[in-house]
Amino acid sequence: MERYICKTCGTQFPDADSPPPSCPICTDWRQYVPAATGQQWTTLAELASDHENTIREQGELVGIGTTPSFAIGQRALLVPFGDGNLLWDCITLLDDATAAEVERRGGLDAIAISHPHYYSCMVEWAHRFDCPIHLHAADAEWVMRSDPAISFWEGERLALGHDLTLIRGGGHFEGGTILHRPGAILVGDIIQVIPDRSHVGFMWSYPNLVPLPDAEVQRIAAAVEPFDYDAIYGAWWDAIIPEDGPAIVRRSGDRYSRALRGEL
After folding, report:
1. With DSSP H G I counted as helix, E B as strand and the rest as coil, what are the percentages for the chain, rounded to 5?
2. Burial of residue 59, with CB atoms counted within 10 A of its CB: 0-12 exposed, 13-18 middle, 19 or more buried
3. Region 208-231: what's the mean pLDDT?
């Protein structure tokens, strides 16, 4: 029996004698199955044979990412959470070296993930650190490996304690989640940090370039408006806007509306 992993999105599936016929996360229109190769699978052991994780500072936080890049290529973030850490978003590869370094930095007391494209090997991480996973209930259908460690929350906000709050942004996925900590929001790609750091982006499908309705973009902007923050942390290495975050989100939402009206 193996726990097969989709090579395109990095999601791990339950124990099985053979790979699933397809990955529902990738056959969904927000993702894709590569035209050149079709659906491909790996396992944690195979991945660890030629990949490793890098751990380094990301602004005021610590990032964990896989080298060479695997699947979507996001990096996770360690967020101080009481005496330990919360893992924001997740990556597929978890090996002994990574676990030891995370333990050295205080371990994990919880995991929270912005949306299904980053569910990856979340259950492996939760079991290794004996901690819960917080996911929005609106995205429960996209969990490929169910487990008692997964805690589904509902509504628009969830206070986790220690000044951390989960916010339902929606947009990219109905349960698309943003994490607020004092001075910053961590957005995955519910709000996208783009090369022009004076603005952010919003999309329903990034790889397939499908936009969101304007009303949904304005809803995302309104969801974070009440929170006190300056920095915005995106999903990839160094995707950080260090200051002026609220004004950047507001003017980006306004720009999106003008673009849809043909006023740019």
Report:
1. 25, 30, 45
2. middle
3. 97
From the list 249, 112, 114, the residue with the least C-alpha distance to 175 is: 114
Q: How does the average pLDDT of the chain come out, rounded?
A: 97
Question: What average pLDDT does this structure show over 8-23?
Answer: 97
**Half-sphere exposure of residue 98, counting CA atoms within 13 Å on the CB side?**
27
Q: Is 116 helix (H, G, I), strand (E, B) or coil?
A: helix
The secondary structure element, H or E, covering residue 64 is strand 61-67
Tell me the β-bridge partners of 164. 161
Which of 88, 82, 102, 108 is CA-nearest to residue 233?
A: 88
Give the residue from 59, 58, 61 showing the smallest Cα distance to 105: 61
- The tokens for 124 are 């492996």
User: What pLDDT shows up at residue 264?
Assistant: 80
- As a whole number of Å, the end-to-end CA separation of the chain is 55
For residue 117, give the DSSP letter: G
Nearest to 122 by CA among 139, 186, 51, 221: 139
Strand order in the sheet with 157-161: 157-161, 164-168, 177-181, 183-188, 229-234, 240-241
**Is beta strand 183-188 parallel, antiparallel or unpaired with respect to 177-181?**
antiparallel
| Predicted structure pTM score | 0.97
Residue with tokens 């969801």: 223
Pick the CATH number of 2-260 from 3.40.630.10, 3.40.5.60, 3.60.15.10, 3.40.30.10: 3.60.15.10
Identify whether the C-beta of residue 125 lies closer than 8 Å to the C-beta of residue 109.
no
Calpha distance 36→200 (Å, rounded): 31
